[in-house]
Amino acid sequence: MPRDSTATRTRILDAATAEFAEFGLAGARVDRLAERAGANKQLIYAYFGSKEALFDATLQRHIEQLLDAVPFNAYDLPAYAIAMFDFGIEHPQLLRLLRWHMLERPGELARLEQTIGSTARKVAALAEAQAAGRVDNTLPPGELLAVVLGIIQAIDDPTPEALAVRRESVAAAVRRLVTPAD
Question: For the chain, what is the domain count?
Answer without folding.
Answer: 1
